[in-house]
Amino acid sequence: MHVQGIRSLFSFPGYILKSIKFGVDATDVELKRDGRYADKCVKCATALKVNRRDLRCVRDLPLGLSRWVHLRFPVIQGYCAVCKRFVTILPEGLISNAQATERLKAYVSTLARHMPLSSVGELLGISESNVYRWDREVLEKNLPEPNLDELKYLLVDEKSVRRGHNYVTLVMNGENGELLYMAEGKKKKSLKGFFDLLNKAQKATVKAVAMDRAGSYYQVVREELPKADIVFDKFHLIANFNAVIDEVRRIEWHKASKEDKAFIKGQRFNLYRPWDTAPTDKQKYSLAILLAMNENLQKVYVLKEALREVWNYRHIGYARRYLEQWLEWCDESALTPVLRFAKGLRKVTDEVVNYVRHGITTGPLEGFNNLVSRIIHRACGVRNIDYLFLKLRQLSLKSAQQR
């Protein structure tokens, strides 16, 4: 059967299109060996002594309305006298015992980037296990190795990936958003595995590492990168102080009269929100009434607003002096949760104000929270930590290229 232009779709060196038969839901394509090509060893080009010829069939890309495309072709096996081994001649883009062409696997991987694996399988008539296996093969083959040279800033954080709070440790390039490393757990050894990948020259280029103050990574970074600055993430610190606000709010609610409880109830997120970002006048009004009637909530709210100013300074000396002043205001508040927070912050003032020097946060990693959940959903669960890393790295590289 001759169809104009169809040959270019099935152009494989050493093979020519013999026939194509279109069906309702399937298309059969048959190739034959091109007589102009000699049967030679793929490594040394020595003529083979052919001892076996078979006919193989694999899946290929969908064609028109046919999602099932069967590609049939002859397979030649011969012995190379120079290499002293048996050689199998196959169409380009196929490997021995393959069930599908490489271009079909690449297509499946592209769909798996945007759809759940089960949906990809249903669309193409492929088992979900094959979709997972092919997607992982393509990613392992095509994704470049992490670039560990000339690293200037590192972002470190942990993410929950399963119910029951099973965590992974993530390390990202703070300049371009490339995900460099992922390991199961959130303990010291989880992060140390990353530094074991770096040589002395690579470690020497790192200027600063951003992380959560509450994490267990501090000691590892201090040991592995003694000359690098540690920057405690400002968003985590604000979230930590929001927890202090909530603790004070609960204390005040229990102390309040029945009438006053009505003013405190439902104000949790209103207290978290910066004053200039309240979306409605009603929320601002209710917050103003609450702060006017409760002195302790007013104190922690004003302290929260004042804490944000630390990261607006452009000179590290001024930022440090302001933070010290803010800690004195905490002492003056005489609120136990605030005093506890201030005591912990006094020990790490350098790590807090280092933001002024480097301007980095774990914000880009925080953006992976939703991505992790989305990818786990598409993969129908966490099948393999290495596979999850490949999927996250695939997305991070796309983001890095867009910068």
Which secondary structure elements does this structure contain, and how are they paired or packed?
Elements: E1 15-22, E2 26-33, E3 49-60, E4 68-80, E5 85-89, H1 102-112, H2 117-124, H3 128-142, E6 153-162, E7 166-173, E8 179-184, H4 188-195, H5 200-204, E9 208-211, H6 218-224, E10 229-232, H7 234-255, H8 258-264, H9 268-272, H10 281-293, H11 295-307, H12 316-333, H13 336-346, H14 349-358, H15 363-366, H16 368-378, H17 385-402
Parallel strand pairs: 2-4, 6-9, 9-10
Antiparallel strand pairs: 1-2, 3-4, 4-5, 6-7, 7-8
Helix pairs in contact: 1-3, 2-3, 4-6, 7-11, 10-11, 11-12, 12-13, 12-14
Overall description:
This protein is α/β, with parallel strands linked by helices and 403 residues long. The protein has 4 domains: 1-95, no CATH class; 99-142; 153-233 and 362-402, Nucleotidyltransferase, domain 5; 234-358. Helices cover 46% and strands 19% of the residues. It contains 17 helices and 10 strands. It has helices at residues 102-112, 117-124, 128-142, 188-195, 200-204, 218-224, 234-255, 258-264, 268-272, 281-293, 295-307, 316-333, 336-346, 349-358, 363-366, 368-378, 385-402; strands at residues 15-22, 26-33, 49-60, 68-80, 85-89, 153-162, 166-173, 179-184, 208-211, 229-232. Strands 1, 2, 3, 4 and 5 form a 5-stranded mixed β-sheet that branches. A 5-stranded mixed β-sheet has the order 8-7-6-9-10, sandwiched between helices. The model has no long low-confidence stretch (mean pLDDT 87).
